[in-house]
Design a protein that fits this description.
single chain; 209 residues; Ribosomal Protein S4 Delta 41, Chain A, domain 1; Structural Genomics Hypothetical 15.5 Kd Protein In mrcA-pckA Intergenic Region, Chain A; five-stranded antiparallel β-sheet; elongated
Length: 209
């Protein structure tokens, strides 16, 4: 399945929930979900029907997949790894998604959205332990150091980022040197670090059928 290239706001309207796919814009009045209290895209209020359990499970799976910008095949692969890892499968799945390099760049504040962070990684702006890594799905490990490539520090985007980075927060499992814009992986994400919006059990049931 190809990556979705349409308007990100359509995905939020489709699921009827804000997924913050466009970063800070999602928290402004410009967000369509704030501006228009419209029904989910493609459906009028008169056409709404009760969603089956299977449909609810699919919706939860799509929420997570769209939020992290992962293709279906990639998502299935992460689920297979999570199922073989000791511990709750759902928690393992979200931890794997949080460990993706594009997500880590987003969590460190290097980008305003995961899609923007994915571009930064793909264009080779980020180093992991001093080595250029341009694979967004690369899984970071505890102790890894994430920093900007020296040539990328000369860009206007980097200069603007150094002025705005102070306003962004960092999860407890990450550390950021705001002066050098260098991030460290202090530990792998714990259950308390995972997004509580997602119904993980529904996703597990979806793939367990």
């Amino acid at each position: 399945m190809a990556r979705y290239t349409g308007p990100a706001c359509h995905l939020c309207r489709y699921l009827g929930e804000k997924l913050t796919l466009k970063g800070e814009r999602c928290f402004t009045p410009k967000c369509p979900l704030e501006k228009k209290k419209a029904p989910p895209r493609g459906r009028s209020s008169a056409q709404r029907r009760r969603i089956s359990d299977r449909g609810l499970q699919l919706r939860e799976k799509q929420k997570v997949r769209f939020s992290y910008g992962v293709l279906e095949r990639q998502f299935r692969r992460f689920f297979a790894i999570a199922a073989k890892t000791p511990g709750p499968t759902g928690d393992n799945l979200l931890i794997l998604l949080e460990r993706r390099l594009d997500n880590v760049a987003y969590r460190l504040g290097f980008a305003n959205s995961r899609s923007q962070a994915r571009q930064i990684v793909q264009h080779g702006h980020v180093l992991v332990n001093g080595r250029k890594v341009d694979i967004p799905s690369y899984l970071v490990k505890q102790g890894d150091i994430i920093k900007w490539r020296e040539a990328s520090m000369k860009t206007e985007y980097y200069k603007r980022l150094t002025e705005e980075i102070n306003d962004k927060g960092t999860p407890s499992w990450l550390s950021l040197d705001e002066g050098k814009l260098t991030g460290s992986i202090l530990a792998l994400p714990a259950k308390d670090d995972l997004d509580p919006r997602f119904n993980i059990n529904a996703i597990v049931k979806y793939y367990s059928r």
